[in-house]
C-alpha cells in the first residue's frame, strides 16, 4: 500500500470536507470515490490476501459454471467475480476497482438513508437545538465526504484491500440497518432486509452475525447515562483484568464442535493454529474504542437512532473484551463496531466547527495508523 499516496489522499479529504461543510457541491463525492478506487486497485500483491485473489481471478473462467467447487470462496462472490470478468476481461486492477466502487456506493447510499432518518427524527421531535449555528445538515440532510472518510479510515481500507468478501457482506449489513432503523417498516422493507441478508450470506457466511445486529436495532431500548457508564467500566474491567481466557476456550470449543452442522462454525474453525491463546499485551484498537465510548456516552442526545447504534457499538466492545484471547475475534466484532463510523458521523455533524475538527482529524489519523499496520 502506497502510504505517501494515502497521506495525500487524506489531506485532500480534509480540504474537501472543509468545503462540504460550507456549501453544497454537486457530485463532490466522486472526488473521493474515484481516487480511493485507484489507490486500492493499484496496491501491491504484498498486501495480505491480495495474491490469493489475484490467483483466483486469473484461474477462474467466466464462461463456465462448472468450476464453483474449485474454490473455497462463497458462490455469490464467485458469481459476482465472473460477472466483473465479463466486463473487464483479465484486467485485475479494474476487478479490484469495481469491488471497491461497489462497497463505497453501498456505504454512501446507506449512510444517506440513515442521515435522512436522523434528520426527520430530529425535526419531528423538535430536537434541532442539538445542532450548533447554521448547520447545513438541516437543509441538506447529508454530507458525503465526512461519512466516507470515516468509513475508509475505520474499516474501508481493510475491507477493500484484504477481506474483500467480508467487506461486501458488511456493506450490505450497513444497508440492511438503514432499513431496520425506520420507525415504521413496510412489508417491502422487511423483504429487503431478508433479501439483503441472503445475498450477504452468499458473499460470506459470517453475515449471519449481522442477525444479532438487527435484533439489537429492533429492541429499541436506551438506558440512562449512568447505566451506560457502568456498562463501559465493566467492559474495561473484564478486558484489562484478562478474565476471559477460560470463557473463550469453552465457547469456541463448543462452536467448533458444531462444524458438521453450520457453515458459520466451519468458517470460524478453518483458520490455521489454535483458536484461543494466552494474550499478554493490550490491544491499542480496543483501548481507542473503549475511551471513545465514554465520549459517545457523555454526548447528550435524545435520538433513538443514536442510542440504537450506541447499543450495537457497546455489544461489539463487550464481545471484544469477553473473547480477548480468541485469535481473529475482530472478524466477529467488525460486524458490530463497523457502525462506529456512523455514530461518530452523527456525533460530529452536531458539533461546533472547532470541536468538529478537534475530533475529526485525530480520529481519522489514529484509525489509519491501526489499519496501515495490517496492510503494510
TrEMBL record:
The chain crosses the membrane at residues 92-110, 137-156, 162-181, 193-216, 228-258, 279-299, 305-323, 332-350, 356-375. Keywords: Membrane, Transmembrane, Transmembrane helix. InterPro entries: EpsG-like. It comes from the Bacteria. This is EpsG family protein. It comes from Flavobacterium flavipigmentatum.
